[in-house]
Recover the amino acids of this structure.
């Protein structure tokens, strides 16, 4: 049995650093929280190369005395608690006394600090936990801490850091969230010498919302407030028309501490039930205040996880306040905010790219409906990515719109389009002979959501959205892996407002996004000009699509990597697919079923939901007691 020994201070600090300092954003969090505990109302954060190169945090707080500064770099040395009894009433953001020694043990750290009563400050230079220099220094009141060469002595951890853009984005997101929950503090954030963000510090949360997002988004935010039995909440939530594809923009603070709370998230989602589609989440800032003794913040080294004694009460209050705000507001989306690119458009294609002219859906539907014996109305929904047209018809389409109808396809082409559909049906029949997917015949549509079909001995119900998702998913995945993208160029380019780290992410992965059909260019400091999108996507939803893509990249990584292609293709397919509630013509439904039969995996959507459920004749007879 090995002999038990006491670990030395250096080893203990390195172990503690593994719990507290996971990546550059962890360092920024600990230093900013120390600044706020020092009553700073101005915090300046500067990083280089996503924080991997260097981090500097400067505040105008109370500073640390010359006598106490060396003590601050010993483990479990803190000015914020005295005994274990104080753990029941934590009022500060920091209290463990591990942040500074943990950071200093894995980096090169310099601190300059001065208290108001002294005319000179104090400086320490520490490398890997070893003090290289200390002594008096001239500096303003407050504290400046510079951290360089992070994880220089733990190369394995440094190796597993993400790209500088991703790491910088995580830091930016943290700064934005701190500005939202601390509106009385001015935060300044610089990356590679360039100012990225500056909060107003006015104490008004709505002002910070405008600076973190933009003025348009801030106008779509609704104030909420509520109080019950010592628990108080306030903040802002978004109208349903402003939503995101992840919970990343749901910011929660308890007693001024930024936290992850699944309970609060669940309560907020319940308030939006029926107002947001599945997989969409609101933008929100929820500030919760409750007695300090009812909160345990000592459950995780990073202090992001907490326990609340009265969690159910907090959830009820959040649901009540959010539901009231949504109920008392006109939630009809403003159509004037839709981008001009939603109007009918004529496409232009880059050199060396195969042309796939797109005709305005409304005109094609009207003409095709009129030709099919007048059985259908002009309200049928078009299914994107139609079958390959007969030889010669593509040349006719490229000549431009018919002078009489203004449409790319003239009445004389309808027969050829029908022939193309017949060819598709024949291909589907050939495919069915070689696979297990049944030969389905459409008989109708249920609740504008489900396609009703039958075979000789069974009844099948197809989820139109899930089926179209599967078809488009396989197409996008193929495009990502091997094919040339199909691009629809927007008649009016869309100006997309982005935060700097979001813009840098898109620029860094531009080649991967172009591979599926996105075309954009730089358009100023916080904007991109979107000129083209994948051919199956809606121009009307282009701005929302970009926002969702950014969140997907942040959450799952670079879209060009094999393990993430699935996620990007699934996102695009979900956005482009027909929705529940869209009324389809019989021809559109039959085309959708034929294309589903040709899919590699026709039985589920890319998220795993079934596309089709079946009932045998025997099961149906049994329901009606016919057996």
């Amino acid at each position: 049995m090995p002999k038990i020994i006491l670990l030395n201070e250096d080893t203990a600090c390195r172990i503690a650093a593994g719990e507290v300092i996971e990546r550059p954003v962890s360092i920024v969090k600990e230093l900013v929280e120390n600044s706020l505990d020092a009553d700073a109302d101005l915090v300046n954060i500067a990083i280089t190369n996503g924080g991997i190169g260097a981090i500097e945090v400067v505040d105008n707080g109370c500073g640390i005395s010359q006598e106490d500064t060396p003590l601050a770099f010993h483990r479990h040395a803190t000015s914020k608690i005295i005994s274990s009894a104080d753990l029941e009433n934590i009022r500060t953001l920091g209290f463990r006394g591990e942040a500074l020694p943990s950071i200093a043990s894995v980096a090169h750290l310099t601190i300059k600090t001065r208290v108001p009563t002294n005319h000179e400050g104090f400086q320490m230079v520490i490398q890997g936990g070893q003090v290289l220099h200390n002594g008096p220094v001239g500096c303003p009141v407050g504290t400046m801490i510079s951290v360089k060469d992070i994880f220089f002595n733990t190369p394995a951890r440094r190796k597993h850091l993400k790209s500088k853009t991703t790491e910088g984005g995580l830091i930016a997101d943290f700064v934005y969230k701190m500005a939202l929950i601390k509106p009385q503090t001015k935060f300044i954030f610089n990356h590679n010498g360039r100012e990225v963000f500056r909060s107003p510090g006015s104490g008004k949360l709505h002002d910070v919302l405008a600076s973190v997002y933009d003025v348009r988004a801030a106008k779509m935010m609704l104030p909420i407030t509520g109080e019950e039995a010592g628990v108080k909440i306030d903040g802002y939530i978004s109208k349903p028309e402003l939503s995101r594809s992840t919970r990343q923009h749901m910011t929660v603070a308890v007693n001024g501490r930024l936290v992850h709370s699944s309970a609060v998230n669940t309560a907020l989602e319940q308030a939006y039930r029926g107002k947001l589609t599945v997989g969409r989440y609101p933008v929100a800032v929820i500030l919760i205040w409750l007695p300090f003794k009812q909160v345990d913040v000592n459950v995780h080294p990073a202090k992001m996880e907490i326990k609340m004694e009265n969690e159910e009460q907090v959830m009820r209050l959040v649901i009540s306040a959010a539901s009231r705000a949504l109920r008392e507001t006109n939630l009809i989306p403003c159509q004037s905010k839709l981008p001009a690119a939603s109007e009918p458009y004529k496409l232009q294609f880059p050199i060396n790219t195969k042309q796939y002219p797109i005709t305005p859906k409304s005109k094609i539907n009207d003409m095709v409906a009129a030709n099919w014996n007048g059985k259908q109305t002009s309200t049928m929904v078009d299914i994107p990515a139609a079958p390959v047209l007969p030889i010669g018809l593509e040349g006719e389409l490229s000549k431009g719109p018919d002078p009489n109808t203004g449409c790319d396809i003239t009445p004389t082409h309808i027969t050829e389009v029908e022939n193309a559909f017949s060819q598709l049906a024949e291909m589907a029949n050939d495919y069915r002979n070689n696979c297990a997917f049944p030969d389905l015949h459409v008989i109708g549509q249920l609740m504008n959501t489900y396609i009703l079909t039958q075979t000789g001995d069974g009844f099948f119900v197809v989820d139109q959205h899930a089926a179209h998702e599967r078809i488009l998913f396989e197409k996008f995945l193929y495009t990502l892996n091997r094919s040339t993208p199909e691009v629809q160029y927007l008649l009016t380019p869309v100006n997309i407002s982005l935060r700097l780290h979001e813009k840098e992410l898109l620029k860094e992965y531009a080649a991967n996004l172009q591979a599926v059909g996105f075309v954009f260019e730089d358009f100023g400091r916080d904007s991109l000009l979107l000129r083209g999108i994948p051919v199956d996507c809606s121009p009307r939803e282009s701005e929302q699509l970009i926002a969702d893509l950014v969140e997907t990249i942040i959450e799952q990584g670079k879209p060009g990597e094999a393990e993430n292609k699935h996620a990007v293709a699934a996102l695009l397919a979900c956005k482009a697919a027909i929705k529940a509630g869209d009324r389809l013509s019989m021809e559109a439904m039959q085309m959708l079923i034929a294309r589903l039969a040709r899919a590699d995996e026709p039985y589920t959507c890319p998220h795993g939901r079934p596309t089709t459920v079946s009932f045998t004749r025997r099961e149906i007879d049994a329901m009606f007691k016919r057996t």
Remarks:
- The longest strand covers residues 487-497.
- Residues 9-202 form a domain with the Heat Shock Protein 90 fold (CATH 3.30.565.10).
